């Protein structure tokens, strides 16, 4: 699910196959303009325009970009484009919108599609290709070669529809995290759990230790998110499905090779219920179980700071919300707040890891559009974006210079993504057809919490909503 916070990859490039590939570009100094911000100057500081000669002379051209990324993160996106603009002569016109998913199809239908769009769900990408087969442009040669060189095969597969690569990876995130207060754990004598069984035992211990304080609970949670309310609950089910059924069955579930109401999915939802529907476990500082449905996900972890709950499961990008709560809060292993990996069962062969990301799609094959898409799939862009972003952004690009990541939780996220001990899977709801992944899955999980709708009825309803073709 695309996140909205309160504020949703070494050198080496291949040769551009079309559109001025052989043109060398010579720029004196390749520095930012006088009115650039300090952040932009940082992005430009170590840029060598020789790395951008492969894109050709794009002077006088313009590339339009449309995305769901807004506010501060949008500014950081634009800063990461500065080297490309400065060294090629192209202009990138960026527009972010909170109505992106609703408005992009409207723009396509009206003939005013952007040159480039950042699509946050592979399922949405497949829908766009199916609904507008003549509108999207397959990925050009250079961008495709960058994907092959700098991304794993699975990331290429996420952007592929019917054997054709339509989307190149952009950013990434890790969702299998549990946020906690290191000092609260230390004061209570608790240790970070290493297995799922340890985590449940810790939850029971907290219940016992706080028996005289009914407002304090092991867990706090919230699934409120405007029109997207319910998506944090889908993340819970996906993470647990990976742990109880395993990655192979998870893949079958996401692709509907097994029905949504398969007994293995029922088992996973029941396991989620042992936490989220357990009155003794939740919702510390916020209310009873039903309060999970009305608590905004952006604020759901805040009771940890007031020592009213001990744990909150949420993705790496949640770190920005701690800064919103209090800019002085330190997110670090020995700081005010930190996160541990949502543990796997003790008998798991590998440690499953849930995550997500965005994909770059194009609606025009002009040389400057192909060049910009290739840039966004390059280590140069990943490193420029890391330089421009203090926290809350990572990439699965294996050419990313991880020393540029400024946030400890981002550094930890990349460690997990690149550690062979962990087996990554993309957010399931983002992979499913839109009417399920961004529809019935969200709404039914909300009803599961808000109205105590039964496990069986929830899963049956989602299964019934799956499109027949």
- Whole-number radius of gyration? 23 Å
Can you identify the CATH superfamily of the largest domain? Answer: Periplasmic binding protein-like II
- In CATH, what is the class of the largest domain? Alpha Beta
Measure the end-to-end span: 23 Å
Named CATH architecture of the largest domain = 3-Layer(aba) Sandwich
Q: Looking at the structure, what is the overall shape?
A: globular
| E-strand count | 12
As for the CATH topology of the largest domain, it is D-Maltodextrin-Binding Protein, domain 2
Keywords:
alpha/beta, 6-stranded mixed beta sheet, signal, 13% strand, single chain, 469 residues, disordered N terminus, Carbohydrate ABC transporter substrate-binding protein, CUT1 family, 19 helices, D-Maltodextrin-Binding Protein, domain 2, SBP, globular, 12 strands, 2 domains, 4-stranded mixed beta sheet
In summary, what is this structure?
The protein is of the alpha/beta class and 469 residues long.
């Amino acid at each position: 699910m695309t996140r909205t916070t309160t504020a949703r990859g070494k050198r080496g490039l291949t040769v551009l196959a079309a559109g001025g590939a052989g043109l060398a570009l010579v720029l004196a100094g390749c520095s930012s303009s006088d009115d650039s911000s300090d952040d932009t100057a940082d992005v430009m500081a170590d840029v060598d325009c020789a790395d951008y000669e492969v894109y050709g002379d794009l002077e006088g051209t313009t590339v339009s970009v449309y995305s769901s990324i807004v506010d501060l993160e949008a500014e950081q996106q634009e800063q990461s484009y500065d080297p490309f603009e400065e060294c090629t002569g192209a202009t990138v016109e960026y527009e972010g919108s909170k109505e992106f998913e609703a408005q992009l199809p409207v723009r396509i239908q009206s003939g005013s599609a952007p040159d480039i769009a950042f699509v946050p769900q592979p399922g949405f990408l497949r829908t766009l290709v199916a609904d507008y087969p003549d509108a999207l442009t397959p990925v050009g040669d250079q961008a495709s070669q960058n994907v092959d060189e700098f991304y794993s095969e699975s990331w290429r597969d996420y952007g592929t529809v019917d054997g054709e690569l339509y989307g190149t990876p952009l950013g990434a995130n890790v969702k299998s995290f549990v946020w906690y207060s290191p000092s609260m754990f230390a004061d209570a004598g608790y240790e970070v759990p290493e297995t799922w069984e340890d985590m449940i035992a810790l939850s029971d211990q907290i219940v016992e230790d706080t028996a005289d304080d009914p407002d304090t609970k092991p867990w706090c949670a919230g699934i409120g998110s405007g029109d997207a309310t319910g998506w944090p609950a889908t993340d819970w089910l996906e993470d647990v499905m990976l742990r109880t059924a395993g990655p192979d069955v998870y893949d079958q579930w996401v692709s509907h090779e097994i029905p949504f109401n398969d007994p293995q999915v029922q088992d996973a939802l029941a396991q989620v219920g042992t936490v989220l529907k357990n009155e003794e476990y939740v919702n510390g500082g916020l209310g009873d179980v039903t309060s999970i449905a009305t608590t905004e996900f952006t604020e759901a972890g805040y009771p940890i700071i007031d020592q009213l709950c001990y744990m909150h499961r949420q993705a790496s990008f949640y770190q920005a919300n701690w800064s919103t709560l209090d800019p002085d809060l330190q997110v670090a292993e020995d700081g005010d707040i930190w996160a541990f990996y949502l543990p796997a069962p003790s008998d798991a062969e590998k440690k499953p890891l849930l995550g997500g990301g965005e994909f770059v799609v194009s609606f025009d094959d002009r040389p400057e559009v192909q060049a910009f898409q290739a840039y966004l799939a390059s280590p140069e862009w990943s490193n420029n974006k890391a330089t421009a972003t203090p926290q809350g952004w990572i990439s699965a690009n294996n050419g990313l210079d991880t020393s540029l990541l400024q946030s400890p939780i981002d550094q930890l996220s990349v460690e997990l993504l690149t550690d062979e001990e962990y087996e990554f899977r993309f957010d399931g709801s983002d992979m499913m057809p839109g009417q399920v992944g961004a529809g019935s899955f969200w709404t039914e999980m909300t009803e599961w919490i808000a109205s105590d709708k039964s496990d069986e009825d929830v899963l049956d309803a989602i299964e019934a909503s799956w499109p027949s073709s």
